[in-house]
Fold each of these.
Amino acid sequence: MLRKLVQSRCLSNGVRSSLHSLTRVSSTLSFSSSTGTTNSFEEELDHKNHTSPLVEPSSTISIDRSGLHNPPAHTHEPSSGSELVKHLKGIIKFRGGPISIAEYMEEVLTNPKAGFYINSDVFGSEGDFVTSPEVSQMFGELVGVWTVCLWEQMGRPDKVNIVELGPGRGTLMADLLRGTSKVANFTKSLHAHMVECSPALRDLQYKTLKCAPEDVRSDSGDERVMSQFSNVPISWHSTLEQVPSGLPTIIIGHEFYDALPVHQFQKTTRGWCEKMVDVADDSRFHFVLSPHPTPANLYVMKRLKWAVKEEIAKLEHIEVCPKGMELTHEIAKRVGSDGGGALIIDYGLNGVVSDSLQAIRKHKFVDILDNPGTADLSAYVDFASIRHSAEETSENVSIYGPISQSQFLGSLGINFRVEALLENCTDEQAESLRTGYWRLVGDGEAPFWEGPEDQTPIGMGTRYLAMAIVNKHQGVPVPFQ
Ligand code: SAH
């Protein structure tokens, strides 16, 4: 029955052999449990209540509610005591005017003292949201299959930088390294670089990857940190720019782009006006529209140049992500000059995003302005913009996708993988595997779910998309053929 769920194409030889190595180590793999589940529906959220009467209000946003338990709590009372609230109000006061939503988002997520990601583990059923690597070990393993296939296409270089952008708990990298451990020449070639801004998550990644200082110092005299998985050296950096260049590089960005700050604009009779965050007389945060063009208007113009007329005509709102464009420049520059490729998986659209920014706390949607720093903020990823930004940067890269997560994992052999794992597991593990499988590749509610109805797992198979940016001399990466 599982075989029917995903239309797997014939596996290429590279995938088959990589998957085979993976299957042989199945008995050593652990089972991650699937968590945090629920109904999927769309709701129109009215922004009017939070927009200054001086300006035309933003109308509505459509939000994706899959994986959440309840309707949004509309308590947008700022907790005036919190350090971050004081800090944000201080910036607005000091500037003498409102700040962009991008600046608000950046402070809320990554402020070095009180940002959402900075001090705690926000993932899993006890945290705020659940991501694919936490749903099932199969996710990281199959991303591992993708990296081995790419490495083969790169001509099996003996030194490779593998970079993960925003590794969360480190689960994806741990499953990738454990799953590929039988491909000794591949793992021997690797140096893993974790791009992570949060000290708390860096500590967690260190533990998940079972890291320890190397017994013997490296040739350069540096004391390296080694993961017990395949004895791969691991380093941490705050940005991709800080990762040493000059070596073929494989970059993985799973649910990273969606955390990058976005600017929001609204169409008015004065043209595109930026939506900003201000403090009202009653001391609450609220949205206002900028009366004049802002520096980010340039990014709107840039983004609209890549859009077709029909797409632009329909737009009342637009979101742009300059940080996402800059990151793509850096990725394309590296992949174009050093060889290798990048895999980007996230939720989003293959076109202009109009109004998608959302806040999630403890698996529920909440107001974006409510108690900043205590909820995740994320926005849909504009994959078309990534494609254009990469094309603009380097003639030496080719861009593939986006394809759906279900196509991606299906073509990499998730059906074979789940069946191999099901052969040798307890009933409880089998249930967890089936649920995890459905959540990764399904589209809608899981058909075999026997738990409480209001917690039926919803598939991420079509809402999540995968895109690859690879050095064009290496051919087409699997499974984008
Ligand atoms: N990839 C993980 C976690 C996704 S959440 C998973 O799928 O489970 C986003 C991750 O990116 C977190 O680890 C967060 O701390 C990190 N992050 C967010 N913004 C960042 C930034 N600007 N620079 C570096 N890391 C960032």
Note: Residues 345 and 466 are 4 Å apart (CA to CA).
Amino acid sequence: MNTIQEILLTEEQISTRVQELGAQISADYQGKDLVLVGILKGAICFFSDLIRKVSIPVNVDFMAVSSYGSSYQTSGAVRILKDLDLPIEGRHVLIVEDIVDTGLTLSYLKKNLLSRNPASLKVAALLDKPERRQVDEHADYLGFTIPDEFVVGYGIDYAEQYRSLPYVAILSPSAYLGS
Ligand code: IMP
């Protein structure tokens, strides 16, 4: 069974956009103490490509969160599986996330990190699915706006599969609805 319905973003498209975002971030944070916070595991590819396109010195750290609910629909309740190692008080923090979908995960993460008093807090997201938004959240640095489809690849999974695909693809609904 072919579970990939369509390639939505090719390696080349992603690489070009990540380079642009890296240049923009480098310019905006010039001279600032910047901590890039990758959100595990979906952002792994975006994070590792992006930091290599940021030309200013940065610190990197990770958080792992899991949302309660089924594997393809978030419930809004978020649990921290791994917290930051670094202190962020007084520092400029950029969350690096894979997808902003309902926005509930981001809303939780921002509230949590803001309570630690960073100098600033912004968000870089590879993908945005605005059609499904439930709260008023957005990425300050965005790779691509995509339609309301379930996507995998470039770090993004369905049930821990497909993360190693070098592109972003729409998963065939038969892969998760069963047919
Ligand atoms: P939100 O809280 O609804 O914004 O969900 C954000 C998280 O849900 C993302 O970080 C992803 O981990 C997951 N997610 C949302 N859409 C997709 C998708 O199309 N494929 C895989 N994971 C997704």
Note: The domain at 12-147 is CATH 3.40.50.2020 (Rossmann fold).
